[in-house]
Amino acid sequence: MKKVFLLFLIIFLPAQSQAQQSLIQYLSGTGADNTTTWEFYCTAGANSKTWKTIQVPSCWEQQGYGSYNYGHDKFEDRINEEGLYRFSFEGNENWKNKQIDLVFEGVMTDCEVKLNGKVIGTHQGAFYEFSFDVTNALKLGQSNLLEVRVKKHSDNESVNQAERNADYWIFGGIFRPVYLRVNPKEYIDRVAIDARANGDFKADVFLKGVKNASSVEVSIVDFKNNIQKVFEQKNIKNGDSIRVNGVFSNPKVWSPEHPHRYIALFKLLNSEKKVLHQYSQKIGFRTVEVREADGIYVNGMKTKFKGVNSHTFHPDFGRTSSEKLSLQTVNIIKDMNMNAIRFSHYPHDKHLLNVCDSLGLYVLNELGGWQAPSYDTKIGKKLLREMIKRDVNNPSIILWDNANEGGWNTAYDQDFANVDIQKREVLHPWGAFEKTVTSHYIDYDYLAFDHFAARQIFFPTEFLHGLYDGGHGAGLDDYWQKMWNHPLSAGGFLWVLADESIKRTDTGLLDSDGNHAPDGIVGPYLEKEGSFYTIKKIWSPIQLEEKYITPQFEGKLNIENRFQFTSLGECKLEYRWVNYSENGKKIIVSKGTPLISDLKPMEKGVLQVPLVEGWKNTHALELIATDPFGRNIYNWTYAVTTPKKEATVLNRFSIDEKINFSESDSEYIFITSNGVKIAIGKKDGLLKSVSRKDGIIPFTNGPVIIENTIVVAGVKHETEGLSHSIRVSFEKDRQAFKWTIEPSGLLKLDLEYEPKGKTYTAGIDFDLPESEMVKVKMMANGPYRVWKNRLKGAEFGVWEKTFNNTITGHSGFEYPEFKGYYSNLYWAEFSLSEGKTFKVYSQSDDLFLKLYNPQEAPDPAKSTVSHSAGAISFMNGIPAIGTKFKKADALGPQSLPYTFASKRVLGGKLSIKLIFDFTINKK
């Protein structure tokens, strides 16, 4: 006998209400982490044409069967695989006189179902729950044979257009659970509930087999099992539904910030008040309004969607999910301070909706569809009803989407309101429809709101299309400032949550189908990338001003409460004055609670941090905020120390010994008393070599001024006491630099240069072979790299980074990445092969450090970046990055080139001051 899972519906009930509940018997497992073995035959592809076994639920490709297809594949190139499933189970004798349905939560894509050799039904459409009445076909007390024939691609071309030709991986199989639902002969089949924030309650109760029932009673029960309100509707007739109305005074309302819920317990009663059947549904009281030429309101508060698109996807399981995976998904979304998710491009699992309800996320629930007109009217109407029938009661769903990007069939636009008791409004993602416009992948300039739908509520259901490390956080700061401040903007939804790289069973490798699927803010296993922290900061519901902490700091920071429903007094804020030890360990000097008034939602105020004794000598001020449930909102770090102050540690070097100086035809050579040997070129002034007793330090060939072809005019050697200097001048006096070699072995660089009038990069390059690099420890903003248009999210501290060659979203998947740009450099200690180390100190504010050029993934589209040729760079300006569909210069002011007004800035030049300490060695 094969393993069968039994699960009784668990509901919060008063003690007297325990009879006549529905029974669920799983024939499959409950999810990706809990499966059951069925017999299986695949008609084509891997492991085909022989009966074997498969785990259910699953996508059969991830079980080693069939072939892999991405949605963009030409249909004629696909193998229309079929899967034949068989499973035997015993019918319980106690189910006599019961109503029994066989329920499938999702099958890709067409299926024919047989029970004991008899066809009991067919279905088309992958992402929808459907059921068949098997009361008369089921053998009680005997073995039953369930057979399911599944076609990966539909016989209905409109279904293929809606679901199979889309821009995502295509799978086949019984990918969601299968179970028997056993009810008494008279029972409540389902309910549809409208629970408003003011307490108004109505429910349509759909009944089956009504004979002796006379009334329906509804109790509103809290999660501590306390009955809060009871409604009753009598005079049940032989119809199939009855409406219950009532008012529950002063309910705790549902919102993403405070997702209060109740249990609605329905009892079907006879004339003697005997319970014939009872049915429970978790609900939330909330009201959604789309106000014309105004905005989207929830519980009377205007809403800005801080949202993300998401597929049901996992590298190991494909589209098969689980409650655990749904919980991980919602938690990582909320950890970014998002408040919304769009189910793209189909209805997702029930447990994901339940987690959105319980933890709090707005949901756009979407009927399948892809660009060209999709489902034909007949099947579209059927699938629309299946979606709403299953999901109507989830308070997290506040709007419906009629397909994606032109895939809508307008013939059933009105059906959403006809079927949905809550009359939630409908969107056409990508288009203008009724009160809304949801244009995709807009340029920043579109946010001037001078487009041809100026009175419609604007919120792009897809924007800043990620690709590898481009998009998402890059440009978001500029976009969000416009979207936050415009009264007709309702926010938007980033594309997409996670890189969709499938771990193939035929190769064992992660495959993202070229550049089609590596679009995520996080990696395929939800690894956090740099944009995660950028979004977390920009979308923090507590906003602190950007501020430089100087000795004149009075402890005051402007603060804004951008919560919709939460007062600041419900959150926890902590300040910390901190230092960092030599090895990077954080030392808390003082901590406590800053002074702040209890700001109401959307109010602004001032946060006061106590200025403890010695605060000016600390390294940084940290501010940490957590929400009412203990979830971290953000950790802000403000540097207190300065680069020049950190470099004073080098004052400990004091050697009154003469430098051994010599020269060759091409080099000036300096040997200090501690054995540091430095060679500088006579013709170009570049650092040619560094060595010491333990060997060569392969840091050479700099400073090369980036994007500059000015010719060296002269190189001059001078002595300054016991120190030596090399002065390098250029033609037309547009740049110059000076090396100073001190007896201690320190090498100082003082450089001035004039960059191009408009440029993405400005600074100097050096060489250091990748093969020599082991790790870097640095005092800077980190630990993630930055781009010119993605500076937020990296915070000041001491970070240690081990070398890796991760290509974001493509290979490696080791985060944070090593290669790239880091802002606000104070110092960096380079650890090389064979235990050699050296350290570089900045004496310039706001300097960037480049650690090699990030390797570019294949087909970077418009996220490609031009880098300087050097390996290690010290820079005043760094490049921006684009998205999949937009070059960087279309993404707003922060994405544009730097503009250098030479006569008005720093006397016409930029400067870089560095100190190289080649004396250290930590074998």
Automatic annotation (TrEMBL):
- InterPro entries found in the cross-reference section: Bact_Beta-galactosidase, Beta-gal/glucu_dom_sf, Gal_mutarotase_sf_dom, Galactose-bd-like_sf, GH, GH-type_carb-bd, Glyco_hydro_2, Glyco_hydro_2_cat
Query: Know the name of this protein?
Result: beta-galactosidase
Taxon lineage:
Bacteria, Pseudomonadati, Bacteroidota, Flavobacteriia, Flavobacteriales
Biological source species: Flavobacterium flevense
EC annotation from Swiss-Prot or TrEMBL: 3.2.1.23
Q: Please describe the quaternary structure of this protein.
A: Monomer.
Q: What region holds the Glycoside hydrolase family 2 immunoglobulin-like beta-sandwich domain?
A: 188-286
Q: List, alphabetically, the PANTHER family matched.
A: BETA-GALACTOSIDASE (PTHR46323)
Which cofactor is recorded for it? Ca(2+)
State if Calcium is listed as a keyword.
yes
Catalytic activity annotated for this protein? Hydrolysis of terminal non-reducing beta-D-galactose residues in beta-D-galactosides
